Structure to design on (672 residues):
């Protein structure tokens, strides 16, 4: 009786199935050369991740090295300014290296280490995942190579220098639009050639199974902490959670522990120069199901299945795909996906600087932009939590340039 | 006997191996591409692999990436490739294997693709990023034993997996010569011989080897051990290097003859 009952309760948190399918999404759409590596990774992570020794080591590093738990901060002045719902910020920007990406890279690098791999590679857009990977590699004494689009190298220059200082080699990628998608293409090509000793640390809840579920599992600490912290601070669950969505790792990490609760979940995609132009990266809002980078998910593409060029002021959201779990959550309407455009993100960026003394990443500024729009419409006793997924030091050049253009 | 089986049988009777030639459809232009393909088929290509261009070819090296970009600039779609296939089928008996990433087929509709590809006279399809774990969604509605999904085996594929792949394969098996993207250097003939020997344990299908085969010597070496030799990037490089030459198709034909000669054993 009991087991029958628990089977009935198996809900949206039970995905994916053994083959990495989130209903029609996910899976493993990769070249045969990589299949054995991906199958081995799936087997090993299921063995290693539940191991108490592995967890002890991971938690120890997350506490003492990354600085977890990150604070849940009540943004008092911003709340007063907007005259609506109480706004809390989950301060992932305060994690070591300045973004949530480190939660995942430490986890994957430890896993790689356990699997006997001596070398890690990663793609990066904003550079935060690249920096976090280079950091984890340095910490564990592993070789590291980062693939980064030439346009992103230009607009996220400080992160390139950080990666180099951390001992990583950088491979500039000039194919396509020279952004995150192209960096991921090149990382996959490189992985195909080096798969015997190299572990690919994918930075988002994208890619072939088991990456989407594995990255989610390393990132869900964001939501687990948030839940505890808000219960302690407010004595109840929040009404609304907001996170930006590029590939979707910070959003998945925050949302996952809340999937079975009644909290409203909002994913904010990059509206770029507007949804009526071709220059946005609103994959879930404007895309259709397709296959990119190893999994089936929403994709921005033309009618012939060619991947569309995309744009966002934020390099980390400038991506035509999205993690497969988000596609399922959109279809079943558990998460509402919306957009904030470049201008709204910039305005939110400025507002947080001035009202809270916090410089947010341009990626996180998209989530803030939604909060700023939505908070005044909500009652003052409602609780809204924004995932401040990263800090904005890397974006200063871009922001200054954009603000000058605005003048 | 279907066209694929016939092609291997004909080659064997002539004491040679099958030359499998890959070109991206519509590169450098639609008309020139058709001319090139016909010439190549007349000059010794036994099996044609016709590439469907894709915006994000993650298994391909720079040469085929650029050929794909050129074809996309020419607005080549899967629909165009099927049209080219049907036109070619009017004139030639060479088996045609469509070579694609999955997304263009998925966008087109897998079942519609199957029907249109067969109607056009294609003999099969090789989908680079569709391993057996996911391929039921493509082949679920197939009922024609003469239309093959060409399966791949890589040097990284363990024995039990080779057995599984071989069990569901038809047409021929495509053996990836090395761990790398298309057009890479560093061909190792003795490793290829090992791979062929191992796969042979599990399959009686013809075994074709591809990736990184570019010189006449490479072809001769691989022809010693495999049933077919796949050339892709080397043809595309020749197209790229002679893109504006009026005798482009003849140059491809000439090179095809040299490769074909090297498949004799």
């Amino acid at each position: 009786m009991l087991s029958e009952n628990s089977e009935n309760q198996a809900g949206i948190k039970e995905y994916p199935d053994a083959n990495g399918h989130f209903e029609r999404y996910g899976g493993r759409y990769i070249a045969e050369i990589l299949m054995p590596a991906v199958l081995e990774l799936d087997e090993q992570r299921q063995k290693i991740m539940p191991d108490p020794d592995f967890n002890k080591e991971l938690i120890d590093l997350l506490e003492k090295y990354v600085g977890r738990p990150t604070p849940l901060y009540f943004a008092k002045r911003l709340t007063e300014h907007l005259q609506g719902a109480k706004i809390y910020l989950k301060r992932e920007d305060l994690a070591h290296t300045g973004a949530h990406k480190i939660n995942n890279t430490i986890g994957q690098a430890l896993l790689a280490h356990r699997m006997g791999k001596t070398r890690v590679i990663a793609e990066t857009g904003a550079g935060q995942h690249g920096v976090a990977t280079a950091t984890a590699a340095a910490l564990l004494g592993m070789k590291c190579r980062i693939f980064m689009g030439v346009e992103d190298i230009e607009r996220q220059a400080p992160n390139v220098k950080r990666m180099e200082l951390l001992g990583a080699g950088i491979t500039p990628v000039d194919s396509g639009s020279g952004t995150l998608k192209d960096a991921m293409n090149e990382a996959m090509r490189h992985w195909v050639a080096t798969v015997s000793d190299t572990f690919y640390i994918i930075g988002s809840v994208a890619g072939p199974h088991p990456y989407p579920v594995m990255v989610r599992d390393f990132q869900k600490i964001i939501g687990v902490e948030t839940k505890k912290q808000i219960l302690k601070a407010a004595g109840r669950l929040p009404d609304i959670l907001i996170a930006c969505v590029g590939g979707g790792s910070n959003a998945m990490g925050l949302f996952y522990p809340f999937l079975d609760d009644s909290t409203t979940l909002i994913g904010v995609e990059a509206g770029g120069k507007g949804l009526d132009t071709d220059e946005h990266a609103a994959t879930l809002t404007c895309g259709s199901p397709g296959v990119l980078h190893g999994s089936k998910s929403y994709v921005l593409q033309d009618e012939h299945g060619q991947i569309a060029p995309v744009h966002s002021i934020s390099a980390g959201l400038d991506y035509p795909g999205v993690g497969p779990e988000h596609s399922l959550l959109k279809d079943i309407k558990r998460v509402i996906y919306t957009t904030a455009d470049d201008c709204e993100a910039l305005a939110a960026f400025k507002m947080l600087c001035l009202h809270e003394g916090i410089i947010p990443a341009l990626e996180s500024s998209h989530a803030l932009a939604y909060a700023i729009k939505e908070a005044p419409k909500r009652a003052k006793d409602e609780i809204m939590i924004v995932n401040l997924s990263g800090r904005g030091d890397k974006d200063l050049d871009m922001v200054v340039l954009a603000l000058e253009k605005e003048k | 006997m279907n066209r694929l089986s016939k092609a291997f049988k004909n080659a064997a009777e002539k004491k040679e191996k099958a030359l499998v030639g890959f070109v991206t459809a519509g590169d450098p232009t639609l008309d020139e591409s058709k001319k090139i393909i016909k010439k190549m088929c007349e000059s010794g290509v036994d099996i044609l692999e016709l590439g469907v261009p894709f915006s994000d070819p993650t298994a391909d090296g720079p040469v085929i990436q650029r050929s794909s970009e050129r074809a996309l600039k020419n607005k080549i779609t899967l629909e165009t490739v099927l049209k080219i296939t049907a036109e070619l089928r009017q004139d030639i008996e060479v088996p045609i294997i469509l070579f694609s990433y999955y997304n263009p087929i998925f966008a087109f509709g897998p079942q519609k693709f199957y029907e249109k590809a067969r109607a056009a006279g294609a003999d099969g399809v090789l989908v680079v990023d569709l391993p057996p774990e996911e391929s039921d969604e493509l082949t679920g509605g197939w009922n024609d034993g003469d239309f093959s999904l060409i399966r791949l085996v890589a040097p990284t594929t363990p024995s039990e997996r080779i057995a599984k792949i071989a069990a569901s394969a038809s047409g021929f098996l495509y053996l990836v010569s090395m761990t790398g993207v298309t057009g890479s250097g560093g061909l190792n003939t003795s490793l290829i011989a090992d791979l062929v020997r191992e796969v042979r344990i599990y399959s009686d299908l013809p075994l074709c080897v591809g990736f990184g085969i570019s010189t006449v010597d490479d072809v001769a070496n691989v022809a010693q051990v495999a049933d077919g030799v796949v050339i892709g990037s080397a043809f595309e490089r020749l197209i790229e290097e002679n893109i504006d030459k009026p005798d482009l198709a003849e140059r491809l034909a000439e090179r095809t003859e040299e490769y074909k000669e090297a498949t004799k054993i």
